């Protein structure tokens, strides 16, 4: 299979002259991009916008293999492996590198964080949205507990051990390095789960305190985070591992971050 997709952006003649002696720069999140998968995996989505793009992407990414919730433990040890220490995983929100063997529920362990809180739509740990690796990440048990099922928004007080994450009574703000990751995971879930397969229709909205409703906010903040924190090499590799080894589907907003604004 092709490797991690390469993004490119169209350059003006002047920019080309300037770029001759400069290293390649990855396109920003709002630039038109191309990937190795555009002519194959994404071929029915290229050139579309709005509801048409969302519908096409839903059809594309809904073709996936599913794993059990217990199998998520071992999968996360691969998808989120620390590139500098193969014995560890990198934890969402805190950015801490922690031993793979410390998975569990005690203080000092890491557990399985549902970025789209499983109570928002009440899908729990069911195979499907409850086990979808594109929004499940390893997280410190205590930090995960602080996040709970809160919506995402800016502001609050520092989370102990949260790497710069903030929280208040009704929202959670990840550390800067994870903001784009969180946004793209939430928006993936909104496209993948649209009310079919017996699951709730997940949608982003402009609220917090969504509770058990199948919504996650705030959309405007998530869009801002996606723009300000474009996909990292870690995020891209993770997307590739999920595609190659586990679910055989992709998060389109990692491959094409400009599709966030094209749909919403």
Task: Give the helices and strands, then pairings.
Blueprint: H1 13-19, H2 50-61, H3 69-79, E1 81-82, E2 85-90, E3 97-99, E4 110-114, E5 136-140, H4 141-147, E6 151-152, E7 157-158, E8 166-167, E9 171-173, H5 176-192, E10 203-205, E11 215-217, H6 219-228, H7 233-246, H8 252-255, H9 259-263
Parallel strand pairs: 6-9, 10-11
Antiparallel strand pairs: 1-2, 2-3, 4-5, 7-8, 8-9
Short descriptors:
11 strands, four-stranded mixed beta sheet, three-stranded antiparallel beta sheet, 264 residues, 9 helices, alpha+beta, 14% strand
Quick summary of this structure?
It contains nine helices and eleven strands. It is α+β, with helices and mostly antiparallel strands.
Strand content: 5-15%
User: How helical, in percent, are the residues?
Assistant: 25-40%
Determine Rg (CA atoms, Å): 18 Å
Number of strands: 11
Q: How many separate domains? A: 1
Taking pLDDT < 50 over at least 5 consecutive residues as the criterion, the unreliable ranges are 6-30
Count of helical segments? Answer: 9
How does the helix and strand content classify structurally? alpha+beta
The geometry reads as globular
User: Largest beta sheet: what is the strand line-up?
Assistant: 6-9-8-7
Give the ordered list of helices and strands: HHHEEEEEHEEEEHEEHHHH
Mind describing the biggest β-sheet? Answer: 4 strands, mixed
How far apart lie the N and C ends? 31 Å
How confident overall, as mean pLDDT? Answer: 90
């Amino acid at each position: 299979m092709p490797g991690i997709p390469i993004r490119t952006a169209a350059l003006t003649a002047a920019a080309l002259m300037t770029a001759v002696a400069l290293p390649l720069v990855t396109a920003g999140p709002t630039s038109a991009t191309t990937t190795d998968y555009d002519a194959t995996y994404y071929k029915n989505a290229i050139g579309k916008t709005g509801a048409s793009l969302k519908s096409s992407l839903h059809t594309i990414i809904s073709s996936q293999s599913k794993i059990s919730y217990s199998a998520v433990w071992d999968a996360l040890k691969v998808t989120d492996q620390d590139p500098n220490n193969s014995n560890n995983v990198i934890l969402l929100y805190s950015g801490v590198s922690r031993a793979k063997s410390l998975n569990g529920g005690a203080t000092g362990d890491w557990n399985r964080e549902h970025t789209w809180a499983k109570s928002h739509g009440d899908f729990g740990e069911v195979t499907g949205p409850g086990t979808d690796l594109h929004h499940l990440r390893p997280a410190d048990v205590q930090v995960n507990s602080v996040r709970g099922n809160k919506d995402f928004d800016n502001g609050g007080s520092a989370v102990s051990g949260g790497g710069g994450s903030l929280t208040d009574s009704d929202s959670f703000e990840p550390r800067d390095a994870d903001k784009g990751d969180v946004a793209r995971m939430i928006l993936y879930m909104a496209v993948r789960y649209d009310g079919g397969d017996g699951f709730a229709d997940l949608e982003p909205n402009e609220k917090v305190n969504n509770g058990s409703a199948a919504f996650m906010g705030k959309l405007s903040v998530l869009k801002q985070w996606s723009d300000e924190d474009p996909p990292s090499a870690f995020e891209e590799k993770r997307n590739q591992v999920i595609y190659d080894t586990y679910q055989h589907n992709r998060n389109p907003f990692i491959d094409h971050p400009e599709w966030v604004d094209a749909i919403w």
